[in-house]
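Researcher: Checking consistency across runs. Here is ATP-binding cassette domain-containing protein again:
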Amino acid sequence: MARNDSRDWAIEAQGLVKRFDGVTAVDGVDLRVPQGAIYGILGPNGAGKTTTLRMLLGIIDPDAGMRRVLGSERPHDMAHAIGYLPEERGLYPSMKAFEAIGFLGALRGLPQAEGRRRGRILMEKHGLGHLADRQIRQMSKGQAQQVQLLGTLVHAPQLVVFDEPFSGLDAINQGRLETMIRELAAGGTTVIFSTHVIAHAERMCDEVAIIAGGRVPFAGPVDVARDRIAPQVRLETARVEGAWRAAIPAEARCDLRSDGGAFWYFSLPDSGIEPLLRALIEGEAGILSLSIERGGLHDAFVAIAGEAVAQAMNTTQPEDAQ
Ligand SMILES: Nc1ncnc2c1ncn2[C@@H]1O[C@H](COP(=O)(O)OP(=O)(O)OP(=O)(O)O)[C@@H](O)[C@H]1O
C-alpha cells in the first residue's frame, strides 16, 4: 500500500522501556502505526510483544519513552475508541454469549442493552447466531474466544489490539478471523496484532514491527522488510562451460544435470539481471529456464533478527500450524 509520510498515526511510540524486577522486558521500542493499517508485532516467546501492547494501551506505564494513541498521550482516555483482546482470555462463565458481548461493550462505555442487541447481530453475522443464548461455560475454548473477539468490536472502536488472536483457533476459524481483520481495516479501523507465526503477518499485514529481546530491529512496511534481502535467481543452462560463466556470481550454487547442463542458484547481483542475461545470450549458455523470486518475510526475518530467533518463531503450537 503506497503511503506518504504526512499520514496520521493511530499509534506513535518512541523509546519505550519496561523493566520487571531488574529484567529489561522492553528496551527502547519505537513504532508508528498508520491509521487504517493492519499492523503486526512479530516475535518469538518472551520477545516483549505483550509488554509493548500493554504499554500502548495504558495498562502498564513505561519506565521511559512516550506513546501517543489516537492522538492522546494518556491511552486510558481513549478506551472508548479501542478494542482489546488480551493474551489471557476470560469471560464470566455464567453469562450467555450475547450478554458477555454486551458486558465487554459496557466496559468501553456502550450502554449494556445496546451492546447486547449488537452482540446478537454480530454473532449472527459471524456464523455464531446459534450460540447467542448459550452460557460461556457451555462453550468450547475456541467458541468462547470468538465471543470475546466480537466483544472487542461491539463498541465500533477506531483501533483494535489483538494479542495472539490466532492461537487457540482451528484453521477454519483462523481463516474467518483473517477475513474479519481485513474487513475491519477496509472500514477504516486500525488493527494491531501480535503473533509468533510469520505466515500470519506475511498474509495479513501492511506493516510489521519485528521484536526480539525487547528491541525492534525493524519496523515498517512488509515490502521494505523483504527488500532487505536480494531476490533469488534460479537459472537452468544447457551448457556448463563458456566465457559467460564469468557473469555468474562466484558464490552461486551449481547442480550439474545428467545431460551436460546445470542449475544455478544465487542472489540477484546489485547490477540486476540484464548484464547477466546479455552475457548468457552472447556466450550461448543455452538458457532453459530462469526465475527471479523476491524473498519471503521469513527470509527477511532471518536477515534482520537472526537464524536463532527465526527458529524459535517456527516452534509453533499444533493449533497454530499452517
Ligand atoms: N509481570 C512481569 N514480571 C516479570 N517479568 C515479566 C512480567 N511480564 C513480562 N515479563 C518478562 O518480560 C519479557 C517479555 O514478556 P512478554 O510477555 O512481553 O513477551 P511476549 O513477546 O508477549 O511473549 P509470548 O509470545 O510468550 O507471550 C519476558 O522475559 C517475561 O518473562
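Researcher: Does this match what you'd expect to see?
Model: One thing to look at in this run: The first helix runs from residue 49 to 57.
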